[in-house]
Amino acid sequence: xxxxxxxxxxxxxxxxxxxxxxxxxxxxxxxxxxxxxxxxxxxxxxxxxxxxxxxxxxxxxxxxxxxxxxxxxxxxxxxxxxxxxxxxxxxxxxxxxxxxxxxxxxxxxxxxxxxxxxxxxxxxxxxxxxxxxxxxxxxxxxxxxxxxxxxxxxxxxxxxxxxxxxxxxxxxxxxxxxxxxxxxxxxxxxxxxxxxxxxxxxxxxxxxxxxxxxxxxxxxxxxxxxxxxxxxxxxxxxxxxxxxxxxxxxxxxxxxxxxxxxxxxxxxxxxxxxxxxxxxxxxxxxxxxxxxxxxxxxxxxxxxxxxxxxxxxxxxxxxxxxxxxxxxxxxxxxxxxxxxxxxxxxxxxxxxxxxxxxxxxxxxxxxxxxxxxxxxxxxxxxxxxxxxxxxxxxxxxxxxxxxxxx
Length: 406
Ligand SMILES: Nc1ncnc2c1ncn2[C@@H]1O[C@H](COP(=O)(O)OP(=O)(O)O)[C@@H](O)[C@H]1O
Ligand SMILES: [Mg+2]
Hints:
The chain is of the alpha/beta class.
């Protein structure tokens, strides 16, 4: 069928025509805003899930909801930044928040104070003052100038929170890729938010990140668990997965047969990104407005080739030979989280010996640790890809390459 009418969205962060299976998270978000609006407190949340499950899309839905309630929305995609870059990124958003809360001509003393605190916050990273020129204030001495991110951010949140409360507006910070925050950065955010809850000020934060984040925040600060829920999102139920395909098609007058939908669920495992890729691909293959199981069968090779190239291969290309061998051994053991010792056994080495390789793979974002001693792939179906890409598990060759197991 025509490319022009193809309704699927196989791109990172692209809002699908039908956002399905996220009602729980959407209503939690509504409740969070409603409770803060009424001067109450509520646990905020950090959405966790593997790549391609729809975390960024969900944050986008939160954004629309918050805007509809006239909240000020600040979006930040975290990258592996040092503290001064992080400070600058936050400051840019917070400055926008001040202007959105009130035009400068109407700034009250509270707003002027908040602007002065924000200026202090950036003095260390913007000595020339170019960045804060638009604020037209002197830095507030004694505020946000402690050379400590957590203390400084808390001062800024307090000042802006007071200003927002004066305008009876809320501010929500949507933080994507939270797993890239360093420990001190995460601690700073948690501490500043904790203060907002204590003072019942209307600033909150909702984050999204890879699954290891729950663990990170856990040891970052013991009260993180009280401050945040960590709802995990993942593959869609069969029913939702079918709706993700059939609803956008129906809008274009196209239907899937029941068998075709069953097959699509089997192929994708209900993973949102895979559903979009499969939908997109089958649309180009199908010649009639009724998509059949045969259409899907015809589509699979192209669909897999596309995933291999665009999604999987880039991840493997960055890996060294030993890292690849480690991944391949894991794939041999299956799609589930694997014990470090089992992988090592299969490779004829000790876990200690392979510890650095495993740590590198975690650091590269290819593996994560769902629980102590285990590692799992950060993208679904990566095991199947590895079996396709590296057909032979060449254990003897591996043994020759590195120091032997003790
Ligand atoms: N609820 C949903 N239903 C159907 N498709 C979705 C849903 N959420 C996301 N998608 C699709 O899945 C893909 C990945 O979404 P994205 O938000 O980028 O995932 P993540 O941020 O978790 O890596 C995109 O192609 C998007 O259109
Ligand atoms: Mg994302």
